[in-house]
From TrEMBL:
PANTHER family: OXIDOREDUCTASE, XANTHINE DEHYDROGENASE SUBUNIT C-RELATED. It comes from Lentzea xinjiangensis. InterPro entries: CO_DH_flav_C, CO_DH_flav_C_dom_sf, Diverse_Substr_Oxidored, FAD-bd_PCMH, FAD-bd_PCMH-like_sf, FAD-bd_PCMH_sub1, FAD-bd_PCMH_sub2, Mopterin_DH_FAD-bd. Residues 1-212 form the FAD-binding PCMH-type domain. SMART domains: CO_deh_flav_C (SM01092). This is Xanthine dehydrogenase YagS FAD-binding subunit. PROSITE patterns: FAD_PCMH (PS51387). Keywords: Oxidoreductase.
Length: 319
């Protein structure tokens, strides 16, 4: 780790008006600093800012500095969000990590984290060895010749399924961005991962009210039961009335460079019977447009099965 200056701004305005890298729980940033993947000259400790609180009065509002463990344990948080959080990292890390930091975490691509290797996200124009190298964990959606790294956050997938928004504060004021618009696929500029402008800070996550989101779940498939990133995951919320799917939300993780919403699957489910057969027909559409690599074509069969499993879980809980 290289030397850096540490400051602790007292207000959001002071933080966004300063130059530096924001530090909350530090569970991602400190790791990357130790590896010299990121080498900030100045770090801004924002833990003293008034960005806390969980409000479930009308929808869900979560302060960016709320810890993952506290959000997961809150009784008013939708099950898909709680489950995504509880399947993330370890209990110790969930006690430290902030929700805002989780949404901003960098990819776990081994090439990105190894400074001896080229990586377009870390060093634009240097290349992407994952396209021809070891790529079992990598993306099949939203990729480009410049980058095939998967997005790491579990809870971002759940929030994307629920049409969540992030509120941002910066030198030019405040604005709100839909989470699915906040993240950027790599295209030709993989180093630009999101729509955060210079000096901006996530202050709050807002999930619109969805009365039937209590019937939701998050299914995560991984190589081991705990402390592992997703090979594939599915966030599902579903409204079933008289055995028919009235409405549904579906998003996938572990398979794309950003949290991957699946509107074609949703459209195929609406108005259909809430049965395993209908779920399988709709889930088969999830792989449309996929671009598998040498080692990860198995995700094309794993993703539909994961979605069906999540839909069946919600169906059982609805009975």
């Amino acid at each position: 780790m290289r030397p850096f200056e540490l400051a602790a701004p007292a207000t959001v305005g002071e933080a966004t008006g300063s130059t530096g890298t924001f530090l909350a729980g530090g569970t991602t940033l400190v790791d990357l600093m130790k590896l010299n993947v990121v080498t900030p000259h100045r770090v801004l400790d924002i833990n003293g800012l008034p960005l806390h609180g969980i409000d479930t009065g009308d929808g869900l509002r979560i302060g960016a500095l709320e810890r993952m463990a506290d959000i997961a344990a809150h009784p008013g948080v939708y099950p898909v969000i709680s489950r995504a959080l509880l399947l993330s990292a370890s209990q110790q890390l969930r006690n430290m990590a902030s929700i805002g930091g989780n949404l901003m975490q960098r990819t776990r691509c081994t090439y990105f984290r190894d400074v001896s290797m080229p990586c377009n996200r870390r060093e634009p124009g240097s290349g992407c060895p994952a396209t021809t190298g070891t790529n079992r964990m990598h993306a099949v959606f939203g990729t480009s010749g410049s980058c095939v790294a998967t997005h790491a956050s579990d809870v971002a997938v759940a929030l994307a399924a629920l049409d969540a928004e992030v509120r941002l504060a910066g030198p030019d004021g405040e604005r709100t961005v839909r989470l699915t618009d906040f993240y950027r696929t790599p295209a030709g500029s993989p180093e630009i991962e999101h729509d955060l402008r210079q000096g901006e800070l996530i202050t709050e996550i807002v999930v619109p009210r969805l009365d039937w989101a209590g019937r939701s779940t998050y299914v995560k498939v991984r190589d081991r039961q705990s402390y592992e990133f997703a090979l594939c995951s599915a966030a599902v919320a579903m409204d079933v009335r008289d055995g028919i799917v009235a409405d549904v939300r579906v998003a996938a993780g572990g398979v794309a460079t950003v949290p991957w919403r699946l509107p074609s699957v949703e459209a195929a489910l609406r108005g259909r019977p809430a049965t395993e057969e209908s779920f399988a027909v709709a889930a088969a559409l999830a792989t449309d447009g996929a671009k598998p690599l040498a080692d990860n074509a198995f995700k094309l069969s794993l993703l539909p099965r994961t979605i069906v499993r999540a839909l069946l879980e919600v169906t059982e809980r609805s009975r």
